[in-house]
Write a structure and sequence with these properties.
single chain, alpha+beta, Cathepsin D, subunit A, domain 1, elongated
């Protein structure tokens, strides 16, 4: 019985060795002979989706500082925003708020705002609209900061109302 089991183990070992030698090894050699980029498919390119009827898009160029700067029409007044997907709300400088006629000197700055630099306080407002090119969002929640902000930020209360936004070849494309 022991001799028979030994024979079966030896026979199974020979069969496994032959499968490796005649089936697996040639396939591995074929793959090794292929160019590296053809050996593995990492992604498949698909055509850009066709624009939806009635959809609107705008293009925002990346500036030399690496940021995307948008020139937007805010209720009829031009405001330069830095696009900030990390900002949960549109944030206005005190100066931009004055230009928009929001009278920040009369507002109550009692809303706690957590920023990368720490905690500050702001005044909540609702902007009638923000338009960039053909893309327009109405009734946008925003906050005005007194001195802590050097540049107005286009945050998620605007970006979150879009159908999509993406970056391609140095441009941010926003779609509505």
């Amino acid at each position: 019985m022991a001799l028979r089991n030994l024979f079966l183990v030896m026979f199974a070992s020979v069969v496994i060795a032959m499968v490796i030698a005649f089936v697996v090894a040639p396939r591995l050699q074929e793959q090794a002979a292929l160019p590296a980029e053809a050996a593995v498919t990492v992604a498949v390119a698909t055509p850009e989706p066709l624009p939806v009827a009635g959809s609107r898009a705008a293009f925002i160029d990346r500036e030399n500082d690496g940021h995307f700067w948008a020139r937007a029409d805010v209720s009829g007044t031009q405001v330069k925003f830095m696009v900030d997907t990390g900002a949960s709300i549109v944030a206005l400088t005190y100066f931009d708020a004055q230009r928009l006629g929001l009278k920040p000197e009369e507002l109550n700055f009692d809303s706690e705002i957590r920023t990368a630099g720490g905690i500050t306080y702001g005044a909540h407002v609702t902007l009638d609209s923000i338009r960039i090119g053909k893309v327009k969002v109405e009734n946008v929640n925003a906050v005005i900061l007194r001195t802590e902000l050097e540049q107005s930020l286009l945050g998620m209360t605007f970006l979150g109302e879009l159908n999509s936004y993406e970056v391609r070849q140095g441009q941010m494309i926003i779609r509505q």
